[in-house]
TrEMBL record:
Organism: Paenibacillus solani
Listed SUPFAM superfamilies: UDP-Glycosyltransferase/glycogen phosphorylase
Domain Glycosyl transferase family as annotated: residue spans: 167-309
InterPro entries: Glyco_trans_1, Glycosyltransferase_grp1
Stated name of the protein: Glycosyl transferase family 1 domain-containing protein
Alphabetized GO MF terms: glycosyltransferase activity
Domain of life: Bacteria
Length: 445
């Protein structure tokens, strides 16, 4: 099976690491056809913003260019690894009536960027498309936006187990936190917990591997917050910030640490890939009961949860519980050994050699469907119809708080979003309120 994809790499380290691996795995089970980024962007005249200024007159033009691209590269399935173009490409595909399946991953649901993407593409998704959700929690969130996402199919992110370096037991009592450094990841909360953990485990160390993300203003503000906590608790001798890590350097961190800690309450979280990477090394995890974490980790088998409630505007993590769970893994060798063995056992279900053939099967099935999208002449009309007028497509009761109901699937993509986190979390709660958990949810595997 031939699957086209856009060459190049994401500028974000975490996205690049996942996407590059995923594409490499897929290439073992399908014939991947790399489309040069410049060739693809020529469909938009070289500029998305320029193309948008001519909408809707250029939708058929984009469709014709897309069709020519598919003929040139002989593809009938397109892995769209540039999320910001998906709605426009789907509009053009439907308008032109191209016999083309779209394949893409629901990396997130409820960040401002991704929510607008889902609102924009909901009317244009068809049975020929493969939308992959990594957890049941992710699909539930999608379904709270639109029943059209019933079409999405489950395929967790996966990993090459041969890349992992086995965990050595973490004799140095290193707590590892890895990923983006920003407010939704609660690194400041982690530093507060760690200052108290040291009272019980004086030789404990914390390694924070990742880069600050967000706008320049957001980065400067959060960096200042982190520095304040470091100074307040006197942590400079016990906390190391490594910056972004990749490849063998990252694998060594998983091998040498005592536990991975992830206290995220990120509205964009769907899976928790670093939890899977830790599992592959046999590194126990302590994480919040938050969204996909609850399906990826099995309580007491390969990790421990920290309770998280969401009864007000913002999720609240149980600080005492977080400290207790971390101290337990740091000090109890039998517990650490049991969780490590459980991780190595359960990670086998996420081997890419099991997951990727299923994804290719999904793509083959989708390719076999006849094209039955929106009638070509209605694509532009629907793209320019207010969301509030399409109750058959959207669950409006979950979208009321955003103030976007008078937007259209096309205009919603350009709505500016610079709202503080607390305000956004309150608005998005009807869609992802189920992310926070205090009661156990059984892991998938």
């Amino acid at each position: 099976m031939r699957i086209g994809y856009i060459g190049g790499h994401s500028p974000k380290v975490n996205e690049r690491a996942i996407d590059d691996q995923w594409t490499r795995y897929l290439g073992e089970y399908a014939e991947l056809v790399k489309i040069p980024p410049l060739s693809f962007m020529k469909l938009f005249g070289g500029s998305i913003d320029g193309w948008k200024r001519r909408f809707p007159d250029n939708v058929m033009e984009l469709g014709e260019g897309l069709q020519s691209l598919c003929f040139k590269y002989e593809i009938q399935t397109f892995y769209l690894n540039l999320p910001f173009v998906i709605p426009y490409v789907m509009m053009a595909r439907n308008a032109k009536g191209i016999d083309l399946s779209m394949l893409f991953i629901a990396h997130s649901v409820a960040t401002p960027f991704w929510l607008k993407q889902w609102l924009a593409l909901a009317p244009f998704i068809t049975e020929k498309d493969v939308v992959l959700h990594s957890t049941a929690s992710c699909k539930e969130a999608l379904m709270r936006i639109s029943p059209r996402f019933e079409l999405s199919v489950h395929a967790p992110l996966c990993i090459d187990l041969r890349d992992a370096i086995p965990n050595t037991g973490g004799k140095d009592r290193i707590m590892l936190a890895i990923g983006r450094i920003e407010d939704v990841k609660n690194v400041d909360f982690l530093l507060n917990c760690f200052s108290r953990i040291r009272g019980q485990v004086p030789d404990a160390r914390l390694v924070i591997a990742g880069e600050y993300t967000g706008t320049k203003q957001q980065i400067e503000k959060y960096r200042g917050c982190i520095e304040e906590y470091m100074n307040r608790y006197g942590l400079h001798d016990a906390v190391e910030f490594t910056g972004a890590v990749l490849g063998e350097e990252k694998q060594k961190l998983f091998a040498e640490s005592r536990l991975l800690v992830n206290l995220s309450t990120d509205p964009g979280e769907t899976f928790g890939f670093n939890l899977l990477e830790a599992k592959a090394s046999g590194l126990p995890v302590v994480c919040t009961r938050w969204n996909g974490f609850q399906e990826l980790v099995a309580e007491g088998e390969d990790g421990l949860f920290v309770d998280c409630s969401w009864t007000s505007h913002m999720p609240v993590i149980d600080e005492e519980h977080a400290i207790e769970q971390c101290v337990g893994v740091l000090t109890d060798n039998d517990l650490h050994r049991r969780l490590s063995q459980g991780a190595l056992s359960r990670v086998k279900a996420y081997d890419y050699q099991l997951i990727m053939p299923r994804i290719v099967d999904f793509a083959i099935q989708a390719k076999g469907h006849s094209f039955s999208g929106i009638e070509q002449k209605h694509v532009v009309r629907i793209a320019n119809t207010a969301i509030e007028e399409m109750q058959d497509i959207y669950l409006l009761e979950h979208l009321q708080r955003f103030g976007w109901l008078n937007e259209t699937p096309y205009t919603v993509l350009s709505v500016p979003q610079d709202e503080p986190l607390s305000g956004w979390m309150n608005k998005v709660k009807p869609i992802i309120g189920h992310f926070a958990g205090e009661a156990p949810i059984y892991a998938q595997y």
